[in-house]
Write a structure and sequence with these properties.
Layout: E1 11-18, E2 34-41, E3 43-47, E4 51-56, E5 60-63, E6 70-73, E7 79-86, H1 88-98, H2 100-108, E8 111-112, H3 116-133, H4 140-158, E9 167-168, H5 173-185, H6 192-199, H7 203-214, H8 218-236, H9 241-247, H10 253-264, H11 268-276
Length: about 280
């Protein structure tokens, strides 16, 4: 799953700039938060087991919890976005006041488009929220809650009407099933042959199909899942690196550290320190 909210936090506001062709390294599913954010530069595609959709600069994209998905690049150049994560509890006053149907409607539309004027307005609102989030005051979350609710109503009131934008998923049911199997058993390091057998394919055919639909070999994808879970343990538990290695299927700490630094550019302990200081890389 994506990096959860930090313990004791109800909201996160993050401005991210990513290199060209940045993509999520594996399918993910948030369980403790909703997402809402604006793409500032670049075009993206979100892929789920059942559908996919595209969005670009100036669009607002939303994702509810338990949406199994992966985002990929659809354009050249860097990717920039500002994103908000928040808990269900944080949104409860909005839901009580306007009704669960309004909130459900908001999150049943995954992408919203706007006029240039509205895009600039929403962009300004998001950066004001980012500035507020960076403050160290006892009223920060209370203020951000009101700003988030204003963002919700602005999106609902100012978005452009659009037709159907959902497209068929590029993932076959068998590959989706394989990904779910890998997510559930990553700590046991399932082999490609084991996963292929689980979905009823020969190893050779499964290998070709997996690479064609995910854009990477099976072993690379599995390692991405394992490293992502290491990141989650580092950010949200007090477990030692040795204990985390065992939980994620790594027999040797040195090997874990080398793989982790190769993927993230920092050691596990450096990553933990940055997370505790309030930085969460997506």
């Amino acid at each position: 799953m994506p990096t959860p909210l930090l313990p004791g936090q109800q909201i996160l506001v993050h401005h991210g700039c990513y290199e060209e062709h940045y993509q999520m390294k594996s399918m993910q599913m948030a369980t403790d938060h909703y997402n809402i954010g604006m793409t500032l530069h670049g075009q993206r595609r979100t892929i789920t087991p059942h559908f996919s959709y595209c969005y670009g600069a100036g669009d607002v994209a939303l994702a509810p919890p338990y949406l199994f998905h992966r985002t990929t690049a659809m354009s050249e150049g860097p990717y920039e976005r500002i994103m908000i994560k928040f808990s269900r509890k944080f949104a409860e006053p909005f839901i009580r006041e306007l009704g669960s149907a309004v909130f459900k409607t908001l999150y049943e539309t995954y992408v919203y488009h706007f006029t240039p004027k509205s895009r600039n307005h929403i962009r300004q609102m998001l950066f004001e929220m980012l500035m507020e989030y960076k403050k160290d005051t006892p009223y920060k979350e209370f203020i951000l809650q009101g700003m988030l609710f204003r963002l919700f109503t602005t999106v609902l009131e100012e978005h452009l009407p659009t037709g159907s934008y959902l497209e068929p998923s590029p993932l076959s049911p068998q590959i989706s099933d394989a990904i779910a199997y890998m997510e559930q058993h990553y700590m046991l390091r399932p082999t490609m042959e084991e996963t292929a057998k689980h979905v009823g394919f020969s190893a050779g055919y499964f290998s070709r199909l997996f690479h064609a639909q995910l854009g990477m070999p099976y072993n690379v994808y599995l390692n991405n899942i394992r490293i992502r879970n290491v990141q989650i343990f580092l950010s949200n538990t007090d477990l030692s690196v040795s204990e985390i290695a065992g939980k994620c299927g790594y027999c040797h700490i040195d090997y874990l550290s080398a793989q982790f630094k190769k993927m993230t550019g920092m050691s596990p302990l450096q990553y933990r320190q940055r997370s505790l200081s309030g930085y969460l890389p997506s």
